[in-house]
Amino acid sequence: MTAPAPTNLFGALRERLTDAAAAFAGSPDALAGILAGMVDDVDRALGERLEIFPVCHHSPASALAMVRRLRARPPKVIYLELCEDLRPLLDELRNCRLPVAVQAFATELDGFPAEWSPLSVIAPVTEASAEYQAIAYALDTPGVELVLVDRSTDHVYQWTPRDGVPVGSDPAPSADEEAALHGDAVGVEIGDLRPRFAELESYLLHHGKVRHWSEWWDQYVERPLADADHDTYRQVMVLIGSLFRRLRPARSARDDRDEDRERHMWTRMRQHLAATGVDPADCLHVCGAFHAASGVEQFGLDSTAPDFPISPRTGTRWRYGLIPSSHSAIEAQFGLAPGTVSIAAANWTAAIGRARVTPFRLAGQQTGKKGQRRRAGAATTPPDATTDRLTGFLAAPPALDTLDEAELRGWCVDIVRLARRNGYLASTADAIAVFETSILLANLRNRARPTPYDFADAAVTCIEKDVVPGRRDVRRLCEILLGGDRIGQVGYDSLPPLARDVLDRLRPLGLDLERRTVQRALLDLRGDPALAACSDLLWMLRHLLPADAVRPIMGERRLGHRSTQESWDLALGRNQRALIELGYEGVTVEQVLEQRLRRVVRGPDATAAGALAAVEDAIRLLDSPRLVDELGAWAVELLAAERTVDDAPEVLRRIRRLLAHHRPTAPTLPAWCRAFVTTGYAHYCTLLPSAFVDEATGVRQVGAMLGFLFSMESLALSLGCDRSQLELAVAQAHPEAPAKLALLWAAHHHLGLLPLARLRERCADLLANPLVVPAFPHYLSGFVHALDPVPGLTPFVVETMSAAFAGLPDPALLPWLPTLITTLREHGPELVPLLVREAERTFPAALPALDGWTPPWAAGPTESTPAPDPGAPGGPLAGMLLAHPETVDALAALLGCDAPWRSPAAPVPPVSDGGSRLLAGYPGTAHAVADLLSPGLSAG
Description:
The chain is α/β, with parallel strands linked by helices. Helix 2 crosses helix 8, helix 25 runs parallel beside helix 28 (723-731) and helix 29 crosses helix 31. Strand 11 (557-558) and strand 12 form a beta hairpin. Helix content is 51%, strand content 7%.
C-alpha cells in the first residue's frame, strides 16, 4: 500500500515518548515501538483526505463532538459504520421513541447450519450516540447522503466459523424483563472501545480505583473530552483506539474479522466515490476509534491495494424491522455495567445544557419529553487538522470539577424518598450519610466532584442493609433516580403488516394496546357476537406469542367447546418485539400459524404425538378441514415410521380426544382417522412383544400400547384389521419385570385366556411367597396401568390391595408401604383415582358400619336353587327337538357323534331364572313358535 506521507505533526511527541520509554523500560525497543506506533497511527488517520471521525458507542462526548462537527462544517456524504443492508430501516426511526434497535431476522436458512436458526442481528440506537446524531442530520438535511459501509448482516454470519458461535450472541442471561428485549440476537454497534487484553483492563481498573470499565471510561476519557474541541477529540480518540489495538493478545478469528470489516468499509467508500464523483473533502467517515487506527492495506483513498473481494450473499431470506430496546437491554447485550447507558443519557442531557448546543433530532421523533425548549447552537469554528492538540492534552493536568452541592444534595434527598417508598427504613440521617460518603469516595478516587457512580456506591453503603425489602435494590433505585431504564417503542407506521393487522383487528376491544401496561379485556360473545373475531385472534396469539403477552383469565377453547364469555390480560405493548418478529414470518396471523403447524409435522424431530397436537390446534384455532386432513395424513406417516413407543401415552390420549370430537360432529370419521387407527393397530401389535422385554421401555408405554389396541379394537376390526395379530403379539410376549408381567396377565384376562379366578390364585401365591412380597408393589403398578386397557379389573385391584393390607404382617408391610406409594406416584398418578373411586364404592361410608362389614370377595357362596341339568331335556324346545329329530341327526352325523337319543326320565325340574319361569308360566308363546317352525323343520 501507499501510506500517506508523514506530516511530522507529532514529531516532538514521538521523541518525548521514545525518551520516556528508554528511561522507563531500560530498552527503547518494544515499548518505544508501541508508543511511536500509536503516534504514527494518529498521524496517518489525521492525514487521510477523507476525514475520519472516531467514536465510541453510547458516548455523550462522541455525540457532542459530532453535533459540533456537523454544525461547523456540514458534510454532503456521511459514511457510517453500520450493516449496509439496514439503510432502508433508518427512515422509520422518526416514527419511534428511542431507544430502539434496527433488526435483521431470518428463519429460512440457505447456506448456514440449520442449528443456527433463527438468525437475528440488531443494532441499538440511542439519542446520546454519535451515530444517531449523524443519522438525524443526514435524513433531515436536503442534499446530504447517508451511506452504510459495513458488512451486511448476511456476512456477519458468513464470517463466523461453522463450529463457533457468532460474537455477541451469548449475552449473560438476565431475569430482568427489559434486559431480555434483544433476546439472543447478535449485536453490532459503532465503536466498541474496550481493552481486549484482560491484564490491561485489570491494571487500569486497579490503578484508576474504579469497579468496572464503564466507570473508568467516564472518569478518564468521557468527562475530559466532553468540553474538548474537535481536533483534540479526534486525536485522543484515535490514540486510544491505537492503544487498544496494539495491546491485545495474539491474533484471533475476531481480529481477522475486524480487519476484513475495515477492508470492506474502505472498498465500499472508494466504490461510492468513484461512482458519484463526490469530493472527499465533503465527506465524513464515522467509525469506531478502534477502526480509525487501522493498518490494513486498503486504508485510505490513496492506497494502491486492490479492492477487497466481497463474497455474494447467501440465499437466506432476511426480514428487516425495528424492535423496542431499553438501556438495560443494551447493557446486557454488550456486557456493560448496570446503569451505564442510563448514566450516559443523564450526562448527555447535562452536557448539551452546559455546552448550549442543539442536538439533531428526526422530524416527528417521539421523545417522551414535554415542554422541551430548543436552544440556539453555540458558535463553533471549523476543525483544523494541522495543529498538535494531543501533546497539550496529555501533558496538562486533569481539570477538576468543583463540587456542586445543590446537585448532590438533591440526589441524596431524592434517593432517601425513593428508598422509603420501596420499603427501606431510610431517614434524613441516611441522606446526610450518603452526601458525606459520596464526597469521601470521590476524593479517594481523585475526583473533586462526585459522579453518579460515587453517589450510587455511597447510597448502597448507607441505605441498603442485609435484606432487600422490595423488588428493587438501592442500586436499581439509583438508576431510576438518575434517568431510569428508558424503554423505546416502535410506532404504528413502522410496524410490519402483521403487527398493524393485529392492532386493527383488536380495535373493537376499545383498548390502547400500544401501552406497556397490562390491560384487561372483557368479551361477552353472546351479547356482542362481533367480538367473536377478536376472540379467535386472541386464541391464535396465545399460541404464537409468549405466555405473558396474551393470557386468558376466564374462558377456554378446546375441541367442540367455545366459551360464551371470556376475560383476557393483554400486554402486547410490553411484548412488541415478539409481535414484530412474528410479522417477519408472514402477513397474517393465520398464515404464520399454518406455517408453524406444518413445520411441526415436517421437521426433523417430528413425532406422531406432535402431529396429533398440531391437528388439534388446527381444529381449535383455524377450523380448516383441508389443513386438518393434511396434518392428519402426516401423523399417520410419522406413526408408521416410529421405531420406539416412548410417545405411546400421548398418542393414545390425543387420538381418543380427536375420535371423541369427530364422532358426534361428522357423519363419518375422516379418512386420516381411519388410517391412523388401522396403522396404529398393526404398528403396536408389531412392537408389543419387544416392548414387553425391552428394559428401556417403561410400563406406562406398554400400558398405553395395550390401551390403544384394546380400546380401538372394535373400530380397527370394523376397518379390516385382523384380531389374530393381537393374539399372536400377546402370545409372543415373555416379560420378566414384575410390572410388565402383571400387564401381560391383564391382557390375557381381557382376551379370555386367563379367568379371574386363576388370576386371583396367582396373586394369592405371590403374597404367600415371602421372597416375592418385597416386589409385589411393582406387580400392583402393572395392574394399575392395566386399568386403562382393562377397566374391568378395577374391583380386582382393590381386592388384591385390600387382601395384601389385611394379610401381610407388620414387619413385611411397613417396609413395603414406601415402595408402593412411590411406585404408584411415579408410574400411575392419573390412574390411582380410579382405585379411589372403586374403594369408595366398595367400602362402607360410615366408620361404625366397618366393624360388621364383610368384603364382597370374602363372603361365602349364597344359597340358590340348583340349575337344571343341561343334559336333561325339558320344556317346549326339548319337545320340538324330540318331535323333529332329523336336523339334530344331520348335525350329529356331520360332527361324528353317534350317541343315542335319551328320553326324559323325569318331569322337567322347576327353573330358577326369571326367563324360564316366564316361559313355564305362559307356554303359549313358545308352543306357537314351535308350531310355526314345525313345517319348515319337517320339510328339511
